[in-house]
Amino acid sequence: xxxxxxxxxxxAEIIDETxxxxxxxxxxxxxxxxxxxxxxxxxxxxCAFSRCVEPDKVHLCSDGKGxxxxxxxxxxxxxxxxxxxxxxxxxWLQLQRLHDAVDNWETSPDxxxxxxxPAGQRAVRVMKEEYAEA
Length: 134
Known about the structure:
Blueprint: H1 11-24, E1 29-30, E2 36-37, H2 67-74, H3 89-100, E3 105-107, E4 114-116, H4 118-130
Antiparallel strand pairs: 1-2, 3-4
């Protein structure tokens, strides 16, 4: 691996990074009553999948198209180098569900930070067990 090559993250590393990312930042959720995830939030927030997409390709992420469909349509080049190598939509869909599920997060009153709830901690643990690399 040359100095210019980026070491891809393992699925476990991506899961941990995602949990840490949303602990310190707002999630990409809109609506007060019907809380919906969007790929690109109104204030620059990004969902779990789209934050892993190349910045100049985020516009290709259309709400209503799941991660698997986007990867089929645009290929792995859609993703930033460090997130490549995890083909198939199941992993990305589960990562997205970690982000989306209201039960996984307790959001601060100002909406700027989040804490994983016990359900969220369990979701992280189960995902890491499921995607442990042999």
